[in-house]
Design brief:
The chain is mostly beta strands and 119 residues long. The chain has no helices and 11 strands. The protein has strands spanning 4-7, 10-12, 18-24, 33-39, 46-51, 57-59, 67-72, 77-82, 91-98, 107-109, 113-117. Strand 5 and strand 6 (57-59) form a beta hairpin. The relative contact order is 0.32.
Length: 119
Amino acid sequence: QVQLVESGGGLVQPGGSLRLSCQASVGLFSFHVLGWYRQAPGKQRELVAVFSTGGSTNYADSVKGRFTISRDNAKNTVDLQMNSLKVDDTAVYYCNARGLGPTPKYDYWGQGTQVTVSS
């Protein structure tokens, strides 16, 4: 059973930074798509940043230039560096690893970590 464990969430003031980390229980090369999603209260879960097969990255327009996704294949971790945080970034952030296509053969989620941006 694949496990994804997030850490690093917390409370930060607007303009501040946080770094989230996701620890996978298996090698990262096991996954075709790997990255971060978030869900704010009353809203649907949305993509934040992901790695896709071939090493390409995809960011939500709302976080481009502020967030950076990175991976350490030796440690089986994928991180999300979040800078210039805004109140609208407040959400539960989830790590996701899945196969290709709209109905992937596998689709794993972490338990989520809360990020609150508030003064």
